[in-house]
């Protein structure tokens, strides 16, 4: 039995299905799953709750950076619903971090170098013992540049907006397709053009276009890449 472990980095555009994919893979192979986007979302929720967003929807960077030492993001292991919950200073904020208000502000927050530095440090600690699947935007490029398996997920913005709309409607959120589509495109723009660790495919990442793949096909593909990486790195 091979008990050596690797790191799996899954990056990609917003609403590309990375989280579902990463969570399922971690479950199948018995690894820890970390949703790095949830961490940026939790910091954004903190800014909203503490009046650090003005009427023009601009984040007060100075105030947020000053507050960083008092913002603690952690995760509670998956409970009965099978979902790992995000904690902000010990409070379960899993639902709050997924709403449109947070989605609209998260990319500007994630552009702030001090925010990234703090969260990236924490993400690196999560991977110290390997055996982890982490998804995000800069996992294969910045957080774990030596990850043994890197996947870059893509699908068209229309397909991604349709998926995200369905997900939000199922949760009872009242949003329109246009609202979701515009958010997806705007976040892609900010995420790919920011100065610090912009979203891009690592040179050694495997590209996975899941536009017309079923969830099962996607998982089969991922599992075969995983087995290959494990064999190559932990012979
Ligand atoms: O689930 P979705 O693809 O909509 O986004 P997410 O993974 O929850 O990430 C929310 C936002 O956090 C992204 O649009 C990025 O602006 C930011 N993020 C980042 O900058 N770096 C990461 N490693 C993960 C997320």
Distance between the termini: 11 Å
Q: Please give the largest β-sheet.
A: 5 strands, parallel
How big a fraction of the residues is strand?
A: 5-15%
Low-pLDDT segments: none
The run of helices and strands is EHEHHEEEHHEHEHHEH
Structural class: alpha/beta
The ligands found in this model are: cytidine-5'-diphosphate
> Whole-number radius of gyration?
17 Å
The amount of helix comes to: 40-55%
Anisotropy-based shape: globular
Give, in spatial order, the strands making up the sheet with the most strands.
Answer: 2-6-1-7-8
Number of helices in the DSSP assignment: 9
Work out the number of β strands: 8
Averaged pLDDT: 93
Account of the 3D structure:
The protein has 235 residues and is of the alpha/beta class. 48% of the residues lie in helices and 15% in strands. The strands form two sheets. It has a five-stranded parallel β-sheet. A three-stranded antiparallel β-sheet has the order 3-4-5. The mean pLDDT is 93. The structure holds cytidine-5'-diphosphate. Cytidine-5'-diphosphate binds next to helix 2, helix 4 and helix 8. The site of cytidine-5'-diphosphate has 16 residues, from helix 2, helix 4 and helix 8.
Quick overview:
With 235 residues, this protein is α/β, with parallel strands linked by helices. The N and C termini lie close together (11 Å). The chain is globular, with a radius of gyration of 17 Å.
Write the layout of secondary structure elements.
Layout: E1 7-12, H1 18-29, E2 32-35, H2 36-49, H3 61-67, E3 73-76, E4 85-88, E5 91-92, H4 100-110, H5 113-126, E6 132-136, H6 139-143, E7 149-154, H7 157-170, H8 177-193, E8 206-209, H9 215-233
Helix pairs in contact: 2-4, 2-5, 4-8, 7-8
């Amino acid at each position: 039995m091979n008990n050596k472990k690797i790191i799996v980095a899954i990056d990609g555009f917003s609403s590309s299905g990375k989280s579902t994919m990463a969570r399922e893979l971690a479950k199948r192979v018995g690894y820890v799953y970390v949703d790095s986007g949830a961490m940026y979302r939790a910091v954004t929720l903190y800014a909203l709750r503490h009046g650090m967003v003005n009427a023009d929807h601009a984040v007060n960077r100075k105030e947020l950076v000053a507050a960083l030492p008092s913002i603690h993001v952690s995760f509670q292991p998956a409970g009965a619903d099978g979902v790992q919950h995000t904690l902000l200073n010990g409070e379960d904020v899993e639902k709050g971090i997924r709403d449109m208000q947070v989605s609209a502000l998260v990319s500007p927050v994630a552009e702030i170098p001090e925010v990234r530095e703090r969260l990236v440090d924490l993400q690196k600690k999560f991977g110290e013992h390997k055996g982890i699947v982490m998804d995000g935007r800069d996992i294969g490029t910045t957080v774990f540049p030596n990850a043994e398996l890197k996947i870059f997920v893509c699908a068209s913005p229309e397909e991604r907006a349709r998926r995200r709309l369905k997900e939000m409607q199922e949760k009872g959120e009242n949003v329109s397709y246009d609202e979701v589509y515009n958010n997806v495109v705007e976040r892609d723009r900010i995420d790919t053009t920011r100065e610090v660790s912009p979203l891009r495919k690592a040179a050694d990442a495997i590209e996975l276009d899941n536009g017309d793949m079923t969830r099962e096909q996607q998982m089969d593909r991922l599992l075969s890449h995983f087995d290959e990486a494990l064999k190559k790195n932990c012979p």
